[in-house]
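Lab meeting, item 3. Inverse folding demo.
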């Protein structure tokens, strides 16, 4: 893997008393997809706005393809393509025109922009609407507008592509196509910073993840590193009755070693080793039979419980040691 196309060091940005970014450090290398995860208000958009030169940091540094994005935002901006979280203003344009213009603005010839736009429309399966004009509040659906904005960011080769929630409003089939295209862009040599809430989808496409919470990096690494696994780890998801105010007190002790325990609303996510699968099922079945829980499901451990634990949704995080339940 070649050099870093994004290097962020000790980045700090405040809004009055709110520290939106608090000493953030992260790197994206050419050929790599890095996911930036975090709840609402974690500081993701603030970070992206500084990377693309829309907001000045109060401390720290940002280098995009070697250019100092704070001292020389214009040069840095030429090296980064952004798909913003808000919908692109497309009214009066067709997807074809919008994508071609984006390519031309990045220095592509007319012919190259035209063929790259067509290829992306095929890749994302939006050919049906390629020549349909967007009108104020109509013409194109939210999903097609989102895919068009993605294609505008992806049309020309740039060192760094920043995608802020690119799959909002996009249907399941086209979301899969979009993730394939993201992977292709990285395989073609771009570094991709992918901002998302969708932990499960991010897991399928990213090489590494940075988790933000209250403006700070609270976890970073590859999906398997963050899962803390154990590909053999399992996750027991227990659905609690709505009247169980504090289930950790009312549930009987588990006859299994729980390595991580997260509560999210009425869901308890318990991580355990595969060798305890039989005991876990017997235990959960007994709880359900005696109506102490609503139901349960056992599946391979995912990144989601690790993410919830890192961002403090957990009622308990006992990674590495057994916990009683
Ligand atoms: N222009 C602003 N003025 C005042 N406060 C702001 C401004 N922009 C962001 N903030 C605050 O900074 C913090 C981080 O916001 P930011 O938009 O970066 O979070 P986010 O992770 O992108 O959230 P979301 O997932 O909802 O888009 C929040 O507390 C937010 O209220």
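The presenter then showed the designed sequence:
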């Amino acid at each position: 893997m070649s050099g870093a196309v994004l290097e962020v060091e000790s980045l700090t940005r405040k809004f009055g008393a709110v520290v939106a970014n608090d000493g953030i450090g992260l790197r994206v290398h050419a050929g790599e997809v890095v996911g930036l995860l975090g709840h609402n208000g974690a500081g993701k958009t603030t970070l992206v706005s500084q990377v693309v030169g829309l907001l000045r940091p109060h401390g720290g540094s940002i280098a995009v393809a070697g250019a100092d994005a704070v001292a020389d935002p214009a040069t840095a901006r030429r090296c980064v393509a952004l798909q913003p979280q808000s919908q692109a203003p497309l009214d009066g344009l067709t997807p074809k025109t919008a994508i071609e213009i984006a390519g031309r603005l990045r220095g592509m010839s007319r012919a190259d922009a035209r063929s790259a736009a067509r290829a992306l429309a095929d890749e994302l399966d939006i050919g049906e609407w390629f020549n349909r004009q967007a009108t104020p509040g109509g013409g194109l659906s939210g999903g097609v507008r989102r895919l068009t904005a993605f294609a505008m960011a992806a049309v020309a080769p740039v060192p760094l592509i920043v995608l802020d929630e690119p799959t909002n409003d996009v249907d399941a089939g086209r979301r899969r196509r979009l993730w394939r295209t993201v992977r292709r862009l990285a395989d073609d040599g771009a570094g991709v910073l992918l901002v998302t809430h969708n932990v499960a989808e991010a897991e399928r496409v990213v090489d590494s993840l940075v988790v933000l919470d209250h403006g700070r990096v609270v976890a970073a690494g590859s999906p398997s590193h963050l899962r803390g696994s154990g590909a053999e780890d399992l996750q027991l998801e227990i659905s609690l009755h709505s009247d169980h105010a504090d289930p950790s007190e009312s549930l009987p002790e588990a006859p299994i070693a729980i390595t991580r325990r997260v509560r999210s609303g009425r869901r308890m996510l318990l991580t355990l080793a595969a060798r305890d699968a039989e005991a876990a099922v017997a235990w959960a079945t007994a709880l359900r039979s005696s109506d102490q829980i609503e139901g349960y499901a056992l599946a391979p451990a995912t990144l989601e419980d690790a993410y919830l634990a890192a961002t403090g949704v957990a009622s308990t995080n006992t990674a590495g040691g057994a916990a009683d339940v």
